[in-house]
Design a protein that fits this description.
The longest helix has 22 residues, at about 120-140. The protein has one domain (about 1-280). By secondary structure, the chain is mainly alpha-helical. α7 (about 120-140) packs parallel to α13 and α11 packs antiparallel against α12. It is built from 16 helices and no strands. The protein has helices spanning about 1-15, 25-30, 35-45, 60-65, 70-80, 90-100, 120-140, 155-160, 165, 170, 185-190, 195-210, 215-225, 230-245, 250-265, 270-280.
Length: about 280
């Protein structure tokens, strides 16, 4: 009997020993947010004048998501390809979320993952290409057909029009231009101030960031595709971006705009005038 009991205890111990371990609270905390959790974080927020992402607890909430660049790129791509996931949110919530998602100045700076090299280049380029689908399947459906760039840009229409203006590449691709006159003197002066070295490195990093040619071409292709959508909101958005990109790709921008004007003979005068300005890079 004693031997039988001893054998039973050994057997039980062996069975317990090989049971799969449950994740500890620490392990759960280190697990990245799912796509659905990320979507809720970005879009399910109260709409107010001072946006939710400027709240004091933002950093701790954002860090708790444990998102890598590669995962953010994956989630943004899925959002752009499957905009139906936004049906649970109001258009005001979507507009607020898009500004948070795209704007380089907002905390989190998610769109900068498309410029940094942590995620694979092919994945980052694919995410940018997916923006064309988002305009075609979402913006086209919710934005008004007619658009006046001189009128206040509000709601989803505003975020669509400003898409390429707030996209971080608009600032960072300036590093591909010749170094501005006097920049070396400015950097030298910064070294003489407190925290000068840190500020010096920040400025220099902004000037020297490398944006791959594939990313440049992906953005231009999206603008070209969006330009052909039957909506002035989409067309003005694309022309706005092309106008900013003209400094770096003058020939391509001019060819894209010329082809657009040649294909569409029934454009309203104010759109033709704006296209002519974008063709020369003369947009604000």
């Amino acid at each position: 009997m004693a031997q039988a009991c001893e054998n039973a205890v050994v057997a039980n111990n062996l069975s317990v020993r090989f049971l799969p371990a449950k994740p500890s609270p620490v392990q759960w905390a280190l697990m990245s947010a799912t796509f659905e959790q990320w979507l809720e974080f970005v879009f399910n927020n109260p709409v107010r004048k001072r946006e939710w992402y400027w709240d004091e607890d933002f950093d701790s909430r954002w860090e708790a998501l444990e998102l890598t660049d590669a995962l953010i790129v994956q989630y943004m791509t899925r959002l752009f390809l499957e905009p139906g996931v936004l049906r649970s949110y109001s258009l005001d919530q979507v507009e607020q979320g898009l500004w948070f998602l795209l704007n380089e100045s907002t905390p989190g700076q998610q769109s900068k993952t498309l410029l940094r090299h942590e995620a694979a280049l092919l994945d980052r380029a694919a995410c940018i290409h997916a923006m064309s689908s988002f305009f075609r399947n979402f913006i086209l459906a919710v934005a008004p057909a007619h658009f006046d760039p001189k009128a206040p840009t509000i709601g989803v229409t505003g975020s669509a029009y400003m898409w390429w203006d707030i996209f971080p590449m608009h600032f960072y691709m300036r590093s591909h231009l010749p170094r501005p006159a006097g920049i070396d003197e400015m950097l030298s002066m910064l070294e003489n101030f407190k925290f000068g070295a840190e500020l010096h490195d920040t400025v220099l990093k902004g000037l020297e960031i490398e944006i791959e040619p594939e990313i440049h071409q992906a953005t231009l292709r999206v603008m070209s595709e969006v330009l052909d959508l039957p909506s002035e909101t989409c067309q003005f958005s694309a022309l706005h971006g092309l106008g900013h990109w003209h400094a770096h790709h003058p020939e391509q921008v001019e060819q894209i705009v010329d082809a657009f004007l040649a294909r569409h003979k029934d454009l309203r005068p104010h759109l033709i005038e704006y296209a002519s300005r974008a063709r020369l890079g003369s947009v604000l």
